[in-house]
């Protein structure tokens, strides 16, 4: 894997000079945003300052767990909460949509900007995709992919769709189906899609699906390219890391080792010129997950990109001594920040690891722990 200097989102501290004034430093604060359905009418968005993490990531932090910062930065009230709520994060924005049991209803989309605190109403999910599609972020766009229950293809099967929600030059958001011709349907079983990763070219998204292999979608040409029968090694979303010049995500391997982070060479979006491309090289990171883990209490895990080459693994665990009936009501959120680098032997290693544990709960069994948005943003503060 090659290394490339990161030219954007590099974090750190900036200094500015002003005539006849002392130096002023700007420090970028890092925050993690977590969505919980912890109240009777809907969802809460919590803001966590990860710069305050000081725990040993390999220790049992259960007894040191603290409450998430109050009050929440935002609350979303919905009818029949928890049933079909979906949240995704793109940069500093959190997108929320909520599906009703009426499959013909157009699902509304709200956008909350974690930097400005603003709330915007985006166009609803296209009616063809209102049967609870998979909604996910990639690059600076939101995608919705699934099968329609109201439209069929030439073979009489439910039609597959991929729609893109993106901002235009004037800052308005629109779905691709409302501004141009729809893209050809995904050439794989959308219900078997396992992971996706945005290419650093800003226009291509890769997908891997069980039994179908790996494909990419070019948002510029609106076309699909097949790359091979192999699968990318990730579970869910992977992120591009400029310093590693590689994708980074959660490893999709052995279930007993869930939470391991891996990197993977970026695949050429041009394909193999008619033939299949060889699978990309990938590596498991050393020390990317806690050495201490109560496997029997493990619930779910997610990865967030914090910016500046930093990531955060968030793991949900049940508390010690909690009955099975209370598992969702009383849980722990373990958050560990780290950076990735290659050591002298070329192994991928997680460094600068710091952790903190929080108490958490949720009301609805329908709202999965893995559905909770995890997004990292930077807020610039000035110090004299």
TrEMBL record:
Q: Which domain of life is it from?
A: Eukaryota
Q: Where is the composition biased (Basic and acidic residues)?
A: 1-18
Q: Where is this region: Disordered?
A: 1-26
Annotated InterPro entries = DUF1668_ORYSA
Q: Which Pfam families match?
A: DUF1668 (PF07893)
**Transmembrane stretches, start-end:** none
The record ties this protein, via PANTHER family, to: DUF1618 DOMAIN-CONTAINING PROTEIN, OS12G0113100 PROTEIN-RELATED
**Listed name of the protein:** Os03g0211200 protein
Taxonomic lineage from the root:
Eukaryota, Viridiplantae, Streptophyta, Embryophyta, Tracheophyta
């Amino acid at each position: 894997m090659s290394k490339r200097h990161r030219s954007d989102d590099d974090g750190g501290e900036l200094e500015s000079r002003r005539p006849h004034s002392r130096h002023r430093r700007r420090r970028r604060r890092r925050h993690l945003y977590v969505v919980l359905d912890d109240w009777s009418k809907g969802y809460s968005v919590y803001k966590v300052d990860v710069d305050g993490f000081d725990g040993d990531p390999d220790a049992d932090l259960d007894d040191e767990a603290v409450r998430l910062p109050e009050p929440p930065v935002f609350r979303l009230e919905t009818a029949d909460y928890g049933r079909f709520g979906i949240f995704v994060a793109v940069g500093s924005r959190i997108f929320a949509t909520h599906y009703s049991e009426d499959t013909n209803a157009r699902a509304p989309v709200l956008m909350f900007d974690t930097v400005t605190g603003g709330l915007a109403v985006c166009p609803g999910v296209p009616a063809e995709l209102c049967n609870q599609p998979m909604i996910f972020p990639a690059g600076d766009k939101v995608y919705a992919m699934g099968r329609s229950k109201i439209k069929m293809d030439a073979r009489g099967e439910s039609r597959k769709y991929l729609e893109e929600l993106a901002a235009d030059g004037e800052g308005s958001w629109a779905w691709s189906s409302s501004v141009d011709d729809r893209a050809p349907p995904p050439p794989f079983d959308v219900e078997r899609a396992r992971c996706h990763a945005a290419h650093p070219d800003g226009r291509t998204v890769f997908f891997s699906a069980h039994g179908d292999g790996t494909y990419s979608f070019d948002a510029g040409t609106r076309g699909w390219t097949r790359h091979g029968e192999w699968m990318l090694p990730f579970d869910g979303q992977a992120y591009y890391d400029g310093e590693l010049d590689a994708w980074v995500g959660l490893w999709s391997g052995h279930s007993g080792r869930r939470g391991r982070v891996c990197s993977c060479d970026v695949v050429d979006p041009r394909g193999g010129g008619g033939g299949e491309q060889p699978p990309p090289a990938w590596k498991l990171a050393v020390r990317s997950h806690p050495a201490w883990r109560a496997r029997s209490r493990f619930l779910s895990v997610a990865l967030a990109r914090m910016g500046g080459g930093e990531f955060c693994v968030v793991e949900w665990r049940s508390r010690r001594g909690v009955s099975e009936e209370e598992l969702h009501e009383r849980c722990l959120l373990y958050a560990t920040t780290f950076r990735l680098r290659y050591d002298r032997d070329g192994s991928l290693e997680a460094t600068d690891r710091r952790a903190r544990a929080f108490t958490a709960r949720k009301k609805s069994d329908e709202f999965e722990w893995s559905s909770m948005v995890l997004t990292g943003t930077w807020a610039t503060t000035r110090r004299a």
